[in-house]
Write a structure and sequence with these properties.
The chain is of the alpha/beta class and 570 residues long. It has 19 helices and nine strands. Helix content is 64%, strand content 8%. Helix 3 runs antiparallel to helix 4, helix 4 packs across helix 7 and helix 15 packs across helix 17. InterPro entries: ABC1_TM_dom (IPR011527), ABC1_TM_sf (IPR036640), ABC_CydC/D (IPR014223), ABC_transporter-like_ATP-bd (IPR003439), ABC_transporter-like_CS (IPR017871), P-loop_NTPase (IPR027417), Type_1_exporter (IPR039421).
């Protein structure tokens, strides 16, 4: 319930649409009730008038019938249009808000989640929220108002006993029983929703890793696991559907029971002249058509379990705290871009020992420096701290003399172009991949960047050059080409005065690595360069001769490995 209220608060901008949709739906349902009841009354009254030879005013009822028929037809159309418009607005507002929230939390705040899982939540769980308004709130509000009005009309035109009997049938058959039945299958509905999300994320992972799975022969086992999940989902779904069908049947029985009660008590009232004959037909059709308003209740009650668990999962994602945030009072970006790491220490959450302990780095504006150290020494960690992917525990990092914690994240990151060890290549064209970092760049500028990164010839030989699609994660590029594409992206960012490249030569043979490093050295212009690389012998081409590489020290490393072993102890 708390999650539902949070969701309604999130939907505040769309409240007028929601209110409009509920009002139209209510008016349409009331028009239908009035039409049915008046038509029933009119036909019977005409028959009575014909039989007794008395006069009857047929203008008023026939006008009401015509008016309500028009309102009902137009209302049904408007109801659909408004209901769906409101829902689309809600879904897109929810998705956009969630996406912005994820942007603030990412990248480090989502480290422990599979991206396919986040994707499934963004898609499936948000889609399920469609049920909240269109199939839960709107029908429930309309049914409750209609139920109360119908009971009041019965008490007014018929009698109190009949009104009380119909009220009891509506409450028990149309509300309590569906809700109780839905409650008994709530666990199954939640399991079904969780399994649907799991199946979607596993399927994406399966497709992503299909090549590896086919080679290792593990695809059969994974497919069997997926089939098992599907079977579990079908079992849970069957349980929900069976109970939901039972609730629908109960509603049908309640509607029939209400008709019998109206006929039984009403006929007695007509016999004792407490009720006019035409009024009995009016009440009969009123009660019969009022149950139409309750028809969506079982589906709403049964959808609620899955919706509640989707909401829980979404808000669990939403409530993750960003690991870094913009300062409350940011300082303007300084003109200089000396980058200094001063006695920096950092320990990953859950680890007992630091990944970095008291590390210093100085990268004066325009200089180039190599950062070395054995695997696991903390090189990638250090450069992630430079762009505040995380915040350090001790020490300080300054850009142009200003502590980076005092700068807006966007400002800081606009100054530093970081090419990570495993750069992400979008499933798009070469040009799209480059323009993701420089949306305004002309084709000529893209070619220049490709040339600087040593990729011009390779792209020239591709079937559609800049328009060549590179596949999922850059699957149609070699590892070296993907890395060069990422370097070209970094070089395209004019505002970035500092280039940080994490192992750009990894996996390349010595000649290619040397060629790449000399291209980078000559194309960086007056930008500073921080190069994470083991290739000491190749560094003079790119790094300043008078600057020794910063080696994350052996002593630190030995301590680090000792600590890692300690972490792994039970
Ligand atoms: N997200 C993380 N959570 C917990 N520990 C981490 C995380 N990322 C890295 N580590 C740990 O921090 C240490 C430093 O890792 P880092 O990736 O910075 O090393 P590196 O010097 O870049 O290694 P390599 O040369 O192999 O890329 C490693 O022992 C690693 O296990």
């Amino acid at each position: 319930m708390r999650d539902l209220l949070r969701l309604l608060k999130l939907w505040r901008p769309a409240w007028p649409w929601l209110l409009g949709a509920v009002l139209v739906s209510l008016l349409t349902t009331l028009a239908n009730l009035t039409l049915m009841a008046t038509a029933g009354w009119f036909v019977t009254a005409m028959a009575v008038a014909g039989a007794t030879g008395s006069a009857i005013n047929y203008f008023t009822p026939s006008s009401i019938i015509r008016f309500t028929a028009i309102v009902r037809t137009g209302g049904r159309w408007l109801d659909r249009v408004l209901g769906h418009e409101a829902t689309f607005r809600l879904l897109s507002a929810t998705r956009t808000a969630l996406f912005s929230r994820l942007e603030a939390i990412a990248p480090a705040g989502l480290d422990d989640l599979r991206s396919s899982e986040v994707g499934a939540r963004l898609k499936l769980d948000v889609d399920r929220l469609e049920l909240v308004f269109l199939r839960l709130i709107a029908p429930l509000v309309v049914a409750l108002i209609v139920g109360v009005l119908v009971v009041l009309v019965i008490a007014w035109r018929g009698d109190g006993t009949l009104a009380a009997a119909i009220a009891a049938i509506i409450v028990i058959g149309a509300l309590l029983l569906p809700l109780l039945l839905a409650r008994t299958s709530r666990a199954a509905a939640e399991r079904e929703a969780a399994l649907a999300s799991q199946i979607q994320s596993r399927t994406i992972e399966h497709l992503d890793g299909l090549a590896a799975l086919l080679i290792t022969g593990d695809d059969r086992r994974r497919s069997d696991q997926l089939a098992q999940l599907l079977a579990e989902r079908m079992k849970a779904e069957r349980q929900v559907v069976n109970r939901s069908a039972l609730a629908q049947a109960m509603l049908g029985i309640a509607s029939d029971a209400a008709v019998m009660v109206v006929l039984g008590l009403g006929a007695a009232a007509v016999a004792s002249a407490r009720l006019a004959g035409p009024d009995l037909t009016l009440l009969l059709l009123l009660v019969l058509s009022c149950f139409e308003a309750f028809a969506p209740i079982p589906a709403a009650a049964f959808g609620f379990g899955a919706t509640a668990s989707a909401l829980r999962r979404l808000f669990a994602l939403w409530d993750r705290q960003p690991l870094v945030e913009d300062p409350a009072h940011p300082v303007a970006l300084p003109p200089g871009h000396d980058l200094i790491a001063d006695h920096v220490s950092f320990t990953y959450p859950g680890r007992s020992q630091p990944a970095l302990a008291d590390v210093n780095l100085a990268l004066p504006a325009g200089s180039a420096r190599r950062l070395d150290g054995a695997s696991g020494a903390g090189k990638s960690t250090l450069i992630s701290l430079l762009v505040r992917a995380r915040d350090l525990d001790r020490g300080e990092i300054r850009l142009g003399g200003v502590p980076i914690k005092q700068l807006r994240l966007a400002d800081l990151r606009s100054r530093i172009a970081l090419v990570p060890q495993r750069p992400h290549v979008f499933a798009a064209t070469i040009a799209d991949n480059l323009r993701a970092f420089a949306p305004q760049a002309s084709d000529e500028q893209l070619w220049q960047a490709l040339a600087k990164a040593g990729l011009q010839n390779a792209v020239n030989n591709m079937p559609d050059q800049l328009a060549t699609y590179v596949g999922h994660g850059g699957a149609q590029l070699s590892g070296g080409e993907a890395r060069r594409l990422a370097i070209a992206r970094g070089l395209l960012r004019d505002d970035a005065r500092i280039l940080v490249l994490d192992e750009p030569t990894e996996g390349l043979d010595d000649a290619s690595a040397a060629a790449m490093l000399s291209t980078i050295a000559s194309s960086r212009g007056d930008r500073s360069l921080l190069l994470v690389s083991h290739r000491g012998g190749l560094s003079p081409a790119s790094a300043d001769d008078n600057q020794k590489p910063l080696v994350l020290g052996d002593a630190d490393l030995a301590a680090h490995h000792r600590n890692q072993r300690a972490d792994q102890q039970p």
